[in-house]
Amino acid sequence: MSDRLVLVINCGSSSIKFALRCESQATALLSGLADRLGSDQATLSWQVAGTQHCVPLADGEHATALTALLPLIDDYSGQPLSAVGHRVVHGGEHFTGAQVIDLAVLDAIRTNAPLAPLHNPANLTGIEAAMRVFEEVPHMAIFDTAFHQSMPAHAYRYALPEALYTEQRIRRYGFHGTSHQYVTNQASQLAGLQTGQGAWLSAHLGNGCSSCAVLDGRSQDTSMGLTPLEGLVMGTRSGDVDPNLHGHLARTLNWDLPRIDTMLNRESGLLGLSGLSNDMRQLEQARAEGHPGATLAIAVFCYRLARSLMGLAAALPRLDGVIFTGGIGENSSLIRALTVEHMAILGLKLDTDRNTSAPRGQACMINAADSTAIMLIPTDEERQIADESLALLPR
Ligand code: AMP
Fold it and tell me: Residue 109: which of 99, 98, 124 has the closest Cα?
């Protein structure tokens, strides 16, 4: 059988990220972004073999962008697609794994929309448009939440009245499941264990950040909850705050819910603490120049991350290793060093040279000889989505 091809699609309200993945190749044949959809400035840009291309789109419709992709896929693949894999943010309690999309799956994504009002409707728009444009090909949904459906009730329930769970499905769901699953599988290979085996703490640190405890390929607990706001300090998201903050701001400042939502999701995190930027590269530079806000933002980020990882250790019977991934986790030796400094009680110690000279884009161990494993593992959510899509096809 020739290598099968999967088109991976991540559809937002005004953008579609895509990648054409071949099952035997480590990198995408073609990847890109349809941006500013819904406006008259919509563009389709893609890169192939290191060269960038960009064309305007005649109108800003999702279907137009996907139709413009058809000839590109023909040009660069030379064979038909085997599947289209869609990233879907919220699968609620309906899905514990990837699904072939049919009417029932579409309905369930719609039913879960109140839990992810910004994401699920946009994901649905993308799926429906793609199903029209690529009508001969099976479409699969891969949910950010599905990997965490293995969490036990004591990890996923909030201490709230039961009816809020039974009637409103208010519980902890967790996100970034494809990333945590991918990097923990890679970790078992790097450690010489059977694929999927091992007891891991995984830190996905990008613009969004989450931590996860994984035992033998199953998520035991994670830092994000009902929504992707809970847990760690992120680029512009606050992570955990006192739940009474809403009431306090309403009473003292007369802020309404949209104002508070915006503050917590878009004006907080690294940006709010530093007063400078949500971008870790810029903050590291500013910290090196003595900027107090950047210094504080990085200190809070690392301390809270260490506290979260150490709390998640309660979900594991032992610890085989800690994994850093995502744009920050993979690239920032400073963040890894400051975080691990807080975790000595777990027997974790970095090898300073290995940490600072870790090769870009490669999985490697960065712990000292007398430490539990600490790994840097580049995530590849598209690979995971492509693999899970192919696994649903009959062989
Ligand atoms: P992601 O969402 O995974 O693309 O990650 C984005 C974050 O990674 C941003 O905060 C970037 O500043 C950060 N990042 C990327 N490269 C580096 C780097 N070399 N050093 C520190 N942070 C980085």
Answer: 124
